[in-house]
Amino acid sequence: MPEAADGRAQTTSRREQLLAIAAEQFATKGYKFTTVRDIAEAAGILSGSLYHHFDSKESMVDEVLRTFQAELFGRYEAILASDADARTKLEQAVEVSFETIDRHPHEVAIFQNEAAHLGAFERFAYLAERNRESRAVWITLLEDGVRAGALRAELDVELTYRFIRDTVWVAVAWYRPGGRRSHTEVARQYLTILLDGIAAREES
Amino acid sequence: MPEAADGRAQTTSRREQLLAIAAEQFATKGYKFTTVRDIAEAAGILSGSLYHHFDSKESMVDEVLRTFQAELFGRYEAILASDADARTKLEQAVEVSFETIDRHPHEVAIFQNEAAHLGAFERFAYLAERNRESRAVWITLLEDGVRAGALRAELDVELTYRFIRDTVWVAVAWYRPGGRRSHTEVARQYLTILLDGIAAREES
DNA sequence: CAACCAACCAAGCAATTGCTTGGTAGGGTA
DNA sequence: TACCCTACCAAGCAATTGCTTGGTTGGTTG
């Protein structure tokens, strides 16, 4: 492993650079639409040279998705393990999600667009596993919220989970890092809608 | 055009059958992952025979998406043109969307998964146009709702539109026609969350 | 019956694709 | 100097892919 003079691991190895380039291509054009020649050209090398770093195109998406998921779920676990109240935890989970879109838009897009097809292959079975994990996280958060009285008691937790998950992740399709709205702003607005709804409150 | 004995147009021409088969394949495996041989095999014919009905694989998605969009936007326009109040129109638009997922799950899935990539090609420029139309519909509904006092005045209409659009359509990824929840039920639950939020109301 | 036609088959071509192989340039190290 | 190792090139192979072409079949119609 290459290291800088001061002993810290070098921030971006060639391998990581290539992975980032591949991720961008996969995200914008789709996995199957992206050829290894595309990736190589974007990196300024020949297609064959990619196989010095990776043993297949499949390995590239695999590694991209794996590292991304590992980081994301680490953050979810941290929230679950904290001692904040139920509503705060829910809000944090939403914020973390939007922050992830901000920091890893390509990775999220790939996951969003390709997970369904790729999940069919044995190699990507962990995607389904992560899906179950994700569901467990959100369901826990929601049930805790109901139990604590922070969320409506009649809530269809399963449906609510799906709506949250969908809305949060699909935002990657339109959210642009560095754009007019910050991820914090978007998360805050979304939480307002989710928690209080869009209807005007009746005077009671 | 083939016609039944009683003079009505035959409900499903061979062409329509093949389109339906192709749509299913595109939806489940993705456009690029689906080969013409896959489609042909699913139809019980050889791949070359498909070219008696269509002149390219591209034409197949094109036709699938075009007819789907035409029907959908026809229904949106009908709602806009009606004389119901703002809130009712918004609810109807949501209901129509979930009903569309129920009736044309494959078409919605294709649109959801492939529109982004395909939109880059000139042939599919109408997808972007339809996107603008869709935005116009929802923004109108939301602004009318705010104006009528049915929706909160401080609403970020643009963000709200995106959240609605995303959540509604992405449901195609998990909604199963004929499953435990009817599309009417899902629409009703979703509207509750959207309009009133998931937070418990404070006693005031 | 003769003509026609929609629907299909059989075979294969040309381009693209992921990937392999053998070799080379150049910087670091003993 | 001799060696090694990372990163790359040049060339091309084998499989897959979308699509073409010429021909066959079976039903319908004048």
TrEMBL record, chains A, B:
<dbReference type="InterPro" id="IPR009057">
    <property type="entry name" value="Homeodomain-like_sf"/>
</dbReference>
<protein>
    <submittedName>
        <fullName>TetR/AcrR family transcriptional regulator</fullName>
    </submittedName>
</protein>
<dbReference type="InterPro" id="IPR050109">
    <property type="entry name" value="HTH-type_TetR-like_transc_reg"/>
</dbReference>
<feature type="DNA-binding region" description="H-T-H motif">
    <location>
        <begin position="35"/>
        <end position="54"/>
    </location>
</feature>
<dbReference type="Pfam" id="PF17932">
    <property type="entry name" value="TetR_C_24"/>
</dbReference>
<keyword id="KW-0238">DNA-binding</keyword>
<keyword id="KW-0804">Transcription</keyword>
<dbReference type="InterPro" id="IPR036271">
    <property type="entry name" value="Tet_transcr_reg_TetR-rel_C_sf"/>
</dbReference>
<keyword id="KW-0805">Transcription regulation</keyword>
<dbReference type="Pfam" id="PF00440">
    <property type="entry name" value="TetR_N"/>
</dbReference>
<dbReference type="InterPro" id="IPR041490">
    <property type="entry name" value="KstR2_TetR_C"/>
</dbReference>
<dbReference type="InterPro" id="IPR001647">
    <property type="entry name" value="HTH_TetR"/>
</dbReference>
<keyword id="KW-0678">Repressor</keyword>
<feature type="domain" description="HTH tetR-type">
    <location>
        <begin position="12"/>
        <end position="72"/>
    </location>
</feature>
